[in-house]
Amino acid sequence: MFLNEMQEEVRETTRSFVDNVIRPAAEALDREERFPAEIYEEMGKLGLFGIAVPEELGGAGF
Q1: Distance of CA 25 to the CA centre of its chain
Q2: 19-61 tens-digit pLDDT
Q3: Coil, helix or strand at residue 38
């Protein structure tokens, strides 16, 4: 699969976030059946919501 530069950047940003934030906490989050608002907030700051929404509708347009 070939990704353009922007897609590669999103992939690397997502991978880094998962490796550094979600993966270390995953076991406890699963056990406690929770997903903290702080993680959602950080995902939003990274632009990980609305990836498939067209830019003209406020999304990332991927």
Answers
A1: 15
A2: 999 999 999 999 999 999 999 999 989 888 888 888 888 887 7
A3: helix
